[in-house]
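Good morning C.,

I know you're traveling, so I'll keep this short. The sequence:
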Amino acid sequence: MAQMHEIKGWCPTAYRPMATGDGLLLRLTPKRIGLSPQQLVAIAETSLEFGNGQIDLTQRANLQIRGIDPDHYSKALTSLIKRGLLGSEEASEYPANILISPLSSLEKNTRLTARGLADELNKLLLQNKLTEYLPSKFLFCINDCTRLSLYSVKSDILIDLSEEGKTSLILANDYQNPIFIEHQDCLASVIELIKRFLELSKQNNFIFRRMHSLIEKIGINAFLKPLNLKTTLLNKEFKPKKDAYLGLISFNDNHFIGVSGPSGAWKAEQLRSFAQILVQHKFQNLQLTPWRSFLIPIYDFRQRLRLLEEINQLNLITRQDDPRLALIACPGAPKCSQAYGNTEEVLEKFSSYASFFSSPKEIIVHISGCTKGCVKGDPTPLTITLTDQGYNLIKNGRADNKALYQSRTLDELDHYVKNNLNILEPL
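The C-alpha cells, ready to paste straight into the viewer:
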C-alpha cells in the first residue's frame, strides 16, 4: 500500500515555528552581511538552554534550532532578540526567499551586485504584497559571481548578473532558454513573471507551488506569451556545476575557508566550540551557503593553516574530498514525526562504504526517512528509504521509486550490501 505523508508546503520562521517530532523547529535567516562568531555562540547557547542541542544548516542558507519545548519557545525567542539575532517583531508575515551569491560583489569590474538588487527586490515584493500570495517555498536566486555561483540551486527565478554588461532571467533552471533584458527593466520583468505565475497557479496552487511544475505542464513559451519577454535559445549546452565550497577558497585576491557538518547537522556544543575558535582569531561576517556550509573570510592568509588545524579537531568537514559529502540524510525520527526510523544510524552504517564512492563532490547515497524525499527530490545512484515495513534499497531513483531490495532491519540491509557489492561498483 502506498504511504501517504503530509507535505507541509510552507517554511517555518523564528516567529512561526514548525512542530516536529522532537519539538518546535525555529528557523533563522541571517542578514546579508553575515553572522558574527558571537552570534553563533548565542545560537548554540539558546539551543542548549531551550532546545535539544541540535542545529541544522539548510539548503536555503538558513539556520535551524531544533527541539524547542513549546513551553520554552517565548524564552528562546527573547534570548535571540536580546542577542541581536532577531527584531522585536517579524519584519513581514510573508518573507520572500531570496538567495544571493555567497561571494557577492567580489567579481572584478562588476557594477551591479546581488546584495543591492536583493534589497530592492524584497522591498518591491513587500510593497506590492506579492509574497502574501506566493508559495512560501518559491525561491529567488540572484547570481553576480562566477565563483560559487547559484546555478546548481533549484530556483524558481534566477537573476544572473555574472556576465559583465548582461542581465538575464532564468525560469525553473532552464539555462538553455535565458531571457535577456536591460538591467533597468530587471525588477519590473520579475514582477511581471510573478503575476503571471500567480495567475496560472490558481488552477491548482498546490501542484503548481513551484515554477518547475508549471513550466513543465504548459511550456516556457506559453508561459511567456502574454508578456513582452522572450527567451534566447543557446547554441552551446549549458551544464551547471557546483564549485568546491569547502576548505581553502581563493577568488580575486580574497580568501575564505568553507566548513560544514555531515548533512548540514551540528551539535550545539560543536557549533559553540567552532565559534569560540573564530572569536579567538577575531574573524567576523561568516556567510551561510546553500550547500549547508559556513564561509569564513580570511584576512591574514598566514592564519589559514592554523585555523584549519583547530577546526579539524571538531570532526567537521573542511575538505572537498571528504567521503561524508557523498551521503545526505533527512533528519529522520524522532526529529521528524513522519519518518519511519532513525536516518542517522543508516548514515553511519553506509559511511563505511566510502571507498566505493568515486566522487564525494556529488551526492551518491540519499537516506530518506519516508517516501517524500524532502532533502533530495531528484534521482540518486543509491537511495535508502525507511518505510513501515523496514528499508527500501533503490538504485538510480528517488525515495518513492520501486525498491531493488527490501529488508526488515538495518543489519539485514547491511548484510545484503556486503554480499552484493556489485551494486556499489558504478558509484
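Safe travels,
E.
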